[in-house]
Amino acid sequence: MKIPIGNYLITSDEMNIVLNERKIRGKKSKNAGEEYYSPIGYFSTMESCLESLFEHKIRAVDAATISELLSEIKNISKFIRSEFKKARGEDKK
Questions:
Q1: pLDDT score at 91
Q2: Helix 66-88 × helix 46-59 angle, to 10°
Q3: 16, 17, 64, 79: least surrounded by Cβ within 10 Å?
Q4: DSSP characters for 36-56?
Q5: How many Cβ atoms are within 10 Å of 62's Cβ, its own excluded?
């Protein structure tokens, strides 16, 4: 399974569901500018993987008030729903 969600990619093997984050190799790298995915976590269920994605995005938010945080949480939820609609082809309707 390979499910892209913005800058993230959910993959799986026989034992795990893996949440990966897209990164770009630095200037000092042999393959500078190359895009790759780095694992963030390994999960036994899709639910726990998606919860981790949600929490990972929330931790990156620079909110100064509860109101700003709640607004960002709504944006993250919309983003995840939108990505799933794209993956299912529902965004073309």
A1: 64
A2: 140
A3: 64
A4: EEEEEEEESSHHHHHHHHHHH
A5: 7
Q: What is the pLDDT of residue 80?
A: 83
Cβ contact 56:43 at 8 Å:
no
Tens-place pLDDT, residues 42-79: 999 988 998 999 899 888 889 899 999 999 999 988 98
Q: What gap in Å lies between CA 26 and CA 32, rounded to an integer?
A: 5
Strands (E), 2-89: 2-5, 8-12, 17-24, 35-43
Average pLDDT over the chain reads: 89
Classify residue 15 by its DSSP letter. S
Q: Tokens at residue 45, please?
A: 């269920």
Residue 92 has phi, psi (to 5 degrees) of: -90, -5
